[in-house]
């Protein structure tokens, strides 16, 4: 096994450890680190291997089919596990996570269908931006959860989701930050949480737009691209060409 594939596998192995750290309540430090610091360290380290394995594979010429299969799988496992853990801790709204994960499944299915027809849909710039934004959003939300819970009431319930300024804790934190008092640790939690929730909105919007780009690229490609015939049609066509008129086909498709 080459180094890029080993890095990709390490990202997969980190996923259950990350879930345990994020969802297990404990007051003492693990490995000398508080829970939220350990969680964000694991997450960012795993996310960095996504960039690292691709760079190494291209520079060393070690791009393999196994890596092409495992890399997107590892990405989706890491992001989905982190987002679902945040929902469980009430740090992220479930509706946003459903949109993000649903988009991932839809795009993965679309690219599989396109590949079967010989069409390659490359990652768009918006898709890459979305990946970076969701890593940032998840990291900010994990950092804001010192006690494993949101530092303020859920914006989507107690306050309108887009009216951050209606939150008393946020107004107090901003007031302390810009000179009217001392900025406390709780204030920083509130600011990180607000920044994470705002970034999550950006992730949702970019996820929807990048999904539109992928589907648009697919339909444009199919208009000028003759898809490969299904296997049964190819077998039947080959038999018709190979056999004289009236002969029975000698090649059959196993449908079991």
Task: Describe it.
The chain is mostly helical and 256 residues long. The protein has a single domain, classed as Up-down Bundle (Four Helix Bundle (Hemerythrin (Met), subunit A)), CATH 1.20.120. Helices cover 68% and strands 0% of the residues. It has eight helices and no strands. Helix 2 runs antiparallel to helix 3 (65-88). The chain is globular.
Layout: helices, strands, pairs:
Blueprint: H1 3-23, H2 35-60, H3 65-88, H4 94-116, H5 125-143, H6 168-177, H7 185-223, H8 231-242
Helix pairs in contact: 1-2, 1-3, 2-3, 2-5, 3-4, 3-5, 4-7, 5-7, 6-7
What descriptive keywords fit this protein?
single chain; mainly alpha; 256 residues; Four Helix Bundle (Hemerythrin (Met), subunit A)
- Summed over residues and divided by their number, the pLDDT gives a mean of 79
Number of domains: 1
- State Rg: 24 Å
Number of helical regions: 8
Compute the separation of the termini in Å: 34 Å
Largest sheet: none
The CATH class, by name, is Mainly Alpha
Shape: globular
**What would you call the structural class?**
mainly alpha
Care to count the β-strands?
0
Helix content estimate: 55-70%
């Amino acid at each position: 096994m080459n180094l890029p594939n080993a890095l990709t596998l390490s990202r997969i192995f980190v996923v259950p450890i990350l879930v345990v750290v994020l969802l297990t309540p404990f007051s003492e430090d693990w490995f000398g680190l508080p829970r939220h610091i350990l969680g964000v360290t694991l997450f960012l380290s795993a996310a960095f291997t996504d960039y690292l394995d691709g760079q190494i594979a291209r520079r060393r010429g070690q791009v393999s089919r196994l890596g092409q299969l495992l890399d997107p799988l590892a990405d989706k496992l890491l992001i989905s596990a982190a987002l679902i853990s945040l929902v469980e801790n009430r740090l992220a709204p479930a509706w946003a996570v459903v949109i993000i994960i649903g988009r991932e499944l839809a795009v993965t299915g679309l690219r599989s269908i396109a590949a079967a027809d010989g069409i390659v849909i490359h990652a768009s710039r918006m898709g890459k931006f979305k990946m970076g934004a969701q890593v940032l959003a998840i990291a900010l939300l994990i950092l804001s959860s010192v006690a494993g819970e949101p530092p303020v009431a859920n914006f989507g319930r107690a306050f309108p989701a887009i009216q951050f300024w209606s939150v008393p804790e946020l107004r107090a934190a901003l007031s302390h930050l810009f000179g009217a008092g001392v900025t406390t640790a709780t204030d920083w939690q509130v600011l990180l949480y607000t920044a994470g929730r705002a970034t999550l909105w950006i992730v949702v919007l970019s996820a929807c737009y990048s999904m539109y780009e992928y589907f648009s690229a697919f339909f444009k490609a199919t208009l000028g691209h003759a898809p490969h015939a299904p296997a049964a049609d190819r077998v039947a066509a080959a038999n018709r060409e190979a056999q004289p008129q009236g002969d029975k086909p000698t090649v059959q498709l196993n449908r079991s």
